């Protein structure tokens, strides 16, 4: 009799257990290390933009919605057909790296929803890239000012995205494709410029070498002039006598006649 009284309670307990198990996925939720979340309260104040849910396991009422955002850096790639400063067509592949500001995902969701990449990031990158590249010629974008173009695009993109709570960390031009005729003309011009620079370098080097030799020759000539101007007959005779005396000390020298030479220099006679 007592067992029959317990049956309704057992049935209710089993039903409650199944209901709890079914609702557990709506009650417990997990936020990953690179994620943040906000809660939408349909029966309350709506989207809570101020309370940012940090990584970990959390609980919520089954009727409330958890809106999770990836806050790690994201890379998007875009292919664009644009016109340069002169109206020439250019195909450009651009990469942009960015991430939503973790503390502002509620504002991002309210303004753009989770599709903020397609509603904000990509349109602005495309727009800024066109505006910036329209200030340069195809040759500048292709070669001489590519880095400058990237910096300009990143700077302008940052201003717009930061104002909408998204950080742009890099904007890179992956590749630039020009019409073949224009590309070949630019490459030929660049090659000619490099050859001209190499030729000018050789000329400058040869001029420097010629200048060095001229200075060395002038220095040697001045030294000879100084030596020649310091020489006299008496000095030469004195040096000759000194040399003769040194020679006389040699064991092979036998007779030294002083003053017998045509110029008054000593003569040395005899040897072994």
TrEMBL record:
UniProt topology in membrane: Single-pass membrane protein
Residues in Band domain copies: 26-190
InterPro entries found in the cross-reference section: Band_7, Band_7/SPFH_dom_sf, Prohibitin
Membrane among keywords: yes
Listed transmembrane segments: 6-29
Record's GO cellular component terms: membrane
BP-aspect Gene Ontology terms: mitochondrion organization; proteolysis
Pfam families noted in UniProt: Band_7
Protein name from the UniProt record: Regulator of protease activity HflC, stomatin/prohibitin superfamily
Organism this protein belongs to: Ohtaekwangia koreensis
Classification of source organism: Bacteria, Pseudomonadati, Bacteroidota, Cytophagia, Cytophagales
């Amino acid at each position: 009799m007592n067992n029959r009284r317990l049956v309704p309670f057992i049935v209710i307990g089993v039903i409650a257990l199944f209901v709890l198990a079914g609702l557990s996925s709506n009650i417990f939720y997990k936020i990953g290390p690179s994620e943040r979340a906000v809660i939408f309260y349909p029966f309350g104040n709506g989207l809570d933009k101020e309370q940012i849910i940090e990584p970990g396991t959390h609980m919520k009422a089954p009727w409330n919605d958890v809106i999770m955002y990836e806050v790690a850096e994201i890379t998007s790639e875009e292919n664009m057909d644009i016109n340069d400063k002169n109206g020439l067509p250019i195909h450009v592949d651009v990469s942009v790296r960015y991430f939503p500001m973790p503390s502002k995902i509620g504002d991002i969701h309210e303004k753009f929803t989770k599709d903020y990449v397609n509603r904000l990031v990509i349109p602005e990158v495309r727009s800024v890239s066109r505006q910036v590249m329209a200030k340069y010629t195809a040759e500048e974008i292709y070669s001489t000012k590519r880095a400058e173009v990237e910096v300009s695009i990143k700077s302008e993109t940052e201003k717009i995205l930061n104002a909408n709570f998204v950080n742009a960390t890099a904007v890179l031009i992956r590749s630039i494709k020009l019409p073949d005729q224009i590309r070949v003309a630019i490459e030929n011009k660049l090659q000619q410029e490099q050859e001209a620079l190499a030729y000018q370098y050789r000329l400058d080097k040869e001029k420097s070498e010629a200048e060095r030799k001229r200075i060395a020759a002038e220095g040697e000539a001045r030294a000879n002039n100084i030596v020649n101007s310091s020489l006299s007959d008496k000095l030469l005779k004195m040096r000759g006598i000194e040399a003769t005396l040194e020679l006389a000390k040699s064991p092979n020298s036998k007779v030294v006649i002083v003053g017998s030479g045509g110029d008054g220099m000593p003569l040395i006679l005899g040897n072994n």
